[in-house]
Amino acid sequence: MEQRINIQELEPNAYNAIFGLSKYLDNTSLSKKLRQLIKIRASQINGCAYCIEMHTAEALKIGEAQNRIFALSAWWESPLFSEDERALLAVTDEVTQISNKGLSDNTFQKAREHFSDNEIAQIIIQISEINTWNRIAISTHMQHKS
């Protein structure tokens, strides 16, 4: 598959604005591991190979275990994830698939048991950010530079 267009070159201001959001999220209280779980999981749902490859490599670099990454596509059945991670992943699934039913009250309340309102806001922004990158990568057929 050949890359269709390069949004970074064609619309650098828009690209940099999204990248700025990414940089902002790097400095929030949400841990790197939790942010990578969000990025990988949303990318799995969206079928974004570019982002799955990138964020899996990043997760491994920061010490995430391979078996947890392998189990992420069925996180709800796996004993490898803590209750706070399960809440985070449930929010990720529902916000990524927002047209199904939105973020349910039950999932939101479970998230509130583990995260502050500010952290929930950060989680939702992180999910939105990776979904934006997924849509750019998939629509343009982004390719990793070897």
TrEMBL record:
Residues 12-94 form the Carboxymuconolactone decarboxylase-like domain. The keyword Signal does not apply. It holds the Pfam family CMD. Keywords: Plasmid. GO terms for molecular function: peroxiredoxin activity. InterPro entries: AhpD-like, AhpD_core, CMD-like. Gene3D superfamilies: AhpD-like. It comes from the Bacteria. This is Carboxymuconolactone decarboxylase family protein. It comes from Arenibacter algicola. The lineage of its organism: Bacteria, Pseudomonadati, Bacteroidota, Flavobacteriia, Flavobacteriales.
